[in-house]
Design brief:
The protein contains 2 helices and no strands. The protein has 52 residues and is mainly alpha-helical.
Amino acid sequence: MINQNFKKEILKTIEVSKETAKNNLDITIDCYTELLSRLEMLTYLIMSEDKK
């Protein structure tokens, strides 16, 4: 099981990463979409860790 404080930090980092990607004009829409997809999957995995 993931420590709650560690989980909060990971989720905060994911949100910062999403915002950074959104504000980065040098990446293509395909790269942006792929990045968001992976971050959403990571978020899902972290959130579902509690349900195990």
